[in-house]
Each structure stands twice: as structure tokens, then as C-alpha cells.
Design goal:
Length: 514
């Protein structure tokens, strides 16, 4: 993203703030290809969160991934095999993940409730579940300490199943170090450091199976969350966050892996939107303001607070990708999107397809830099940059901790003055909202906004404890959002306002349809 060129297109609102952010960001990160996102003034760090994420270590990440690789082949279908060597296969991997969450819980006096959701996924003709198959989702729940807010949840997940070239092969090596032991390591390390803290809302640390067979584990969990009425505010899916470090993994003339950047994918329009919802979204220009996208924007803000400059000048940072997933591909967050939850996907900047879904082998052929040589195929630990994965884990853990500390998102966010008689013929904007369920008495609110062509929020104004704010800015020219703030400055993701007569429709907050 070219922030300076982007800035030159901004004429109306937020010019000074945007310019300052662009200059700061540009100066800080000249050494890398992907620029950190500018935007609002950087929020003050919570010292407890900063201390916790500093404890995430590449050595722990490496040990987690190395252990998962020892199970040889974590194909979900291997749960039905009876001839596997002891200590191999997906069930042995599930047992280890369970024991690891349990060990973390033991270290915090039993603060985690460790769960094993064990179920049979029935065979479906033409699918990758070729026979009735046992699946296990393993997760650990750090229950919120405020009874009024404990049903609010944020969730981090990765998939622990793996595959090689043949998606139904259960016996030959499929180390799956990057895809997706790295994502499981993010979940485990987040649990390890955050379990030492207390949060008013609940955090769920997850490892699912079945991703490679068709997102079966995440679909089961998302449906469970819906059926049990979880107020699930944000799902952070980590899949392929190993930062493949193969020398020469780049195209001619462009940088290769960016060790300072992780992609965060988010859908623009909620998956369950009906045709009527789509019409409403188009009418108000909210094609880039789904709850998932607001979570992605909030993650970028949290990152700016907590991620310090690395060697080379720029901080590790998310690059917001405004699409549901990589081009034409999918992942576990889509299962949560389908149930109406806000969910995003973290993936390394540049994938190396020789090191995903491949039988272990070498071939003579073209190296990533275009030269001929011996190409090594396979998802080995040696191609994972565990410092990179640790940084992804830090962004995840800081985001989870911030959202679980903040009050919930404001509800019933509306433009109350819009009447059918005068339509939208005014050049000011009044926005009103209601306090989220269980909000502490000292909760305050902020209205954020951005020009319609800006990717992230550029301006902010506090409403204090009021539940309404009038701004002398036309709603034609900007997108507004409202977010909750606790006394310590933790902020919820923003919620966009709909005209009051439309506010009962689903797209502004489809996850509240429980
Ligand atoms: Zn994967």
C-alpha cells in the first residue's frame, strides 16, 4: 500500500491525522515491502498485556511444532486406522494437545477448562470423508472473571491435522510443520501466556481437526457455538503462519518472504447475508464493513500499540487483505463466518507451495528464484521461521487480551434522526447507541470515522459516557463506527450505524441472531 499516494487522494476529512500517521509509518519501515497501516493515534499499551506477549518465545513455538511433527501423519482419516505405530497419527496428536493445555492449566492453578469434543463425522459421498470418521476438537477455556461479561468470547484456532500429496493418505509422512502446526502453536502459546492473567470476558484456545478434509472440525465447533448461544465476538484463525524461510523464495525483482508482515484476511460482506441484506448493505455503502472486517481493523490498531520495531526498523504488522481468504481458497474461519460470527484468517506473507500438501521428496527442477537445482518438497520444520510465528502469536495474544478486557461492542448503533420525510438531506450526523450487555459503569464510547475510500479508521472523537454524539460531518463522505472503551483504554472493535428504521435488519450485527 502506498500511504503517500493514498494520502494525496484525501481532501476532506482527517487530513492532518492521516498525514502524520503516513509520515510516521513511512519513516519507520522503509526497509520492508509491506507498510504498516497508518490511522488513529496509537493507543497506550496495557503493561500486563505487553509483559505477557513478551513471554512468547520462538523456542516454545519450535518445541510445539517439533512435537506435532513427531506424529508422522496427522491425517484426520488416520483416527480410524488400527495398524499405526504407537505414538503416531491424528489421535496421538490430539492426546498431546489435550495434555499440553492441561499442563498449562495446572501451572495456573486449574484456570483453564480443557475440553475434548469427540464426535463421528459421517461419510459423505464425493467428499474427503470417505468413511464414518472420529474427529476431536481440543480446546481450553479461560473463563471470564466478570459474570456479567463471561458469555462474551473471543477465540483463537489452528488446525492440527496434516496431509501430504494424497489427501486420503494416512501412513506416509505428512509433517505439516507450517500447515498447520504453526497455527496450533499460536493457540498453545497464547494460552500459555494469557492464562497467567485475568479477563472479564472469556478466551477460548482451540485446535481443530478435519480442515484438510473439508473444514469439518471448525464447522462442528461453529455450529456448537451458535447452538449454545455463545456471544462470540471475534475468531482468529491461524493457518500457515510459519513464515517459510527458504532461501531464494522470491520472484524476480520483488521481495520474497516479508518477515515483518502477516496477512489478515476478512470478508467484506457477512456470509449469511440474504438478498435483502445485500441490498441494504449496498444502499448504505457498507460493502467493506462486515463485523469480520471491523475485527481485522481492530487487530491492526492493537498491533500498532504492542508490536515494537524489529531489526530493519519496522514493527511486525498485519497487512489487511480485503477478501475472505486467499484467491479462491478457504479455511476454518469460513465455518464461523457461515454461522454469522466475525472471523479472520492469519497467513504468512508469501506461501511456498513446495512446502505444503507435498510428499517428502527431492526433484531436479526450477528453484523459487528461477534457477535450476535440487528442489526439496515437504512441510518440514526446518522451513519454518519460529521467530516469525512467535510474532504472529504476539499479535494474536495482544488482540485476544484487548478484546477480552474491553467492554463488548455497543449495540443498536443507529442514525436516529433519519426520517422518511426528509430522507438524508443534512450535512451533519447524529449517532446513537446502547451500552453492551454487562458493560462496566465507567465504560465510555468513541466514534471513529474514515473517508469512504480509506481502508482503516482515520479519525476519532470520544463521546465520554454519553450514548449519542452529533458531528458536523456529512455521512455521505465518511463511514462512521462506534466502539466501547474501558477505564484502562481497551477498545472493542467498531460497529457501523444504520438508519434507525433499518437497524433491526441483520447485516450490522448478524452474530447477535441467537
Ligand atoms: Zn491449513
Amino acid at each position: 500500500m502506498d500511504l503517500v499516494a493514498d494520502h494525496n487522494r484525501r481532501k476532506r476529512v482527517g487530513r492532518a491525522v492521516w498525514l502524520m500517521a503516513a509520515v510516521t509509518a513511512g519513516a519507520a519501515c522503509a526497509a520492508t515491502a509491506q507498510q504498516p497501516i497508518g490511522g488513529l493515534p496509537v493507543a497506550k499499551a496495557d503493561p500486563k498485556i505487553a509483559a505477557a506477549i513478551a513471554k512468547i518465545s520462538p523456542d516454545n513455538v519450535k518445541a510445539d511444532i517439533a512435537k506435532l511433527v513427531t506424529f508422522k501423519n496427522r491425517s484426520t482419516l488416520s483416527s480410524m486406522d488400527t495398524d499405526l505405530p504407537e505414538g503416531t497419527g491424528v489421535t496421538a496428536a490430539a492426546d498431546w494437545i489435550y495434555s499440553e493445555y492441561q499442563r498449562i492449566s495446572d501451572e495456573c492453578g486449574g484456570c483453564l477448562e480443557v475440553k475434548r469434543d469427540d464426535f463421528i463425522e459421517p461419510a459423505v459421498a464425493g467428499s474427503r470423508i470417505t468413511k464414518d470418521t472420529r474427529l476431536q476438537n481440543i480446546y481450553a477455556v479461560l473463563k471470564g472473571t466478570d459474570p456479567a461479561q463471561a458469555n462474551r468470547r473471543v477465540l483463537v484456532t489452528g488446525h492440527y491435522d496434516s496431509r501430504n500429496s494424497d489427501v486420503s493418505n494416512t501412513h506416509d509422512d505428512a509433517p505439516g510443520a507450517n500447515d498447520d502446526a504453526s497455527g496450533v502453536a499460536v493457540s498453545i502459546e497464547s494460552a500459555r501466556v494469557l492464562s497467567k492473567l485475568k479477563f472479564p470476558a472469556t478466551i477460548v484456545f482451540v485446535a481443530v481437526a478435519g480442515e484438510e478434509q473439508g473444514l469439518n472440525g471448525s464447522r462442528h465447533l461453529a455450529k456448537l457455538a451458535k447452538s449454545e448461544g455463545w456471544d462470540l465476538e471475534a475468531v482468529l484463525n491461524n493457518d500457515i503462519v510459519g513464515g517459510d524461510n527458504t532461501p531464494g523464495n522470491k520472484a524476480e525483482g520483488v521481495p520474497g518472504q516479508d518477515t515483518h508482515a502477516v496477512r489478515v484476511f476478512s470478508e467484506g460482506v457477512p456470509s449469511p447475508a440474504t438478498l435483502q441484506d445485500l441490498h441494504t448493505i449496498q444502499t448504505y455503502g457498507y460493502e467493506s464493513d462486515s463485523p469480520s472486517r471491523e475485527v481485522a481493523r481492530a487487530i491492526a490498531e492493537v498491533s500498532r500499540t504492542y508490536m515494537k520495531p524489529l531489526a530493519g526498523g519496522s514493527p511486525f504488522h498485519p497487512v489487511l487483505e480485503f477478501r475472505r481468504d486467499r484467491f479462491g481458497r478457504g479455511g476454518d474461519h469460513s465455518s464461523f463466518n457461515a454461522e454469522g460470527f466475525a472471523a479472520v484468517r492469519f497467513t504468512e506473507w508469501r506461501e511456498n507451495f513446495n512446502h505444503q500438501h507435498q510428499d517428502l521428496r527431492t526433484e531436479t527442477g526450477q528453484l523459487p528464484d528461477g534457477k535450476d537445482g535440487t528442489v526439496e518438497f515437504g512441510d518440514y520444520l526446518k522451513f519454518v521461521d519460529t521467530s516469525y510465528t512467535a510474532n504472529v502469536a504476539r499479535v494474536n495474544a495482544a488482540s485476544l487480551a484487548t478484546f477480552a478486557s474491553a467492554p463488548g461492542e455497543p449495540t443498536n448503533v443507529v442514525f436516529p434522526e433519519v426520517k422518511i420525510t426528509n430522507g438524508f438531506n443534512d450535512n451533519f450526523s447524529v449517532i446513537s447507541w446502547q451500552a453492551p450487555a454487562g458493560a462496566p459503569a465507567d465504560t465510555t464510547y468513541e466514534v471513529v470515522w474514515r473517508p469512504t475510500d480509506a481502508p482503516t479508521w482515520t479519525n476519532v472523537k470520544s463521546a465520554g459516557s454519553a450514548l449519542t454524539l452529533k458531528l458536523d460531518i456529512s455521512k455521505d463522505n465518511v463511514v462512521f463506527g462506534v466502539r466501547s472503551v474501558d477505564a484502562a483504554g481497551h477498545r472493542s472493535p467498531a460497529v457501523v450505524p444504520y438508519p434507525v428504521r433499518r437497524a433491526t435488519m441483520s447485516p450490522s450485527a448478524p452474530r447477535k441472531t441467537k
